[in-house]
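batch job 7 of whatever, protein = Thioredoxin
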Amino acid sequence: MATTELTGSTIGQTIKDNEIVLVDFWAEWCGPCKRFGPVFEDSSKNHPDVVHAKVDTEAEQELAAELQIFSIPTLMAFRDGILVFNQAGALPAPALEQVVEAVKALDMDEVREKIAAAASTDA
């Protein structure tokens, strides 16, 4: 599966409608982003069950600001609509593979319990 371009109007529905979504925040002028692009594209081919999406931070400045993207490339991973990974910096292929496998292996009931517990202690 090829990567998908996301915008402020499509990102929410994409995250909601798919079990796992990886989002690469990038810009055309960013050297590390250009080096990470082919790694991300290869991952999309190796994991057709995972949505690999890209957000051009130049075209989507409001979305980047809303999601607090301060450095690019930044990779976010969502599982069942929950942000489970957020890291700036270009990952080498083995590290990206580890992220994908870790996200797939998450026990989402446990993740939801931890979120609920954290929310109750914040209240």
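notes: Residues 31-46 form the longest helix (16 residues).
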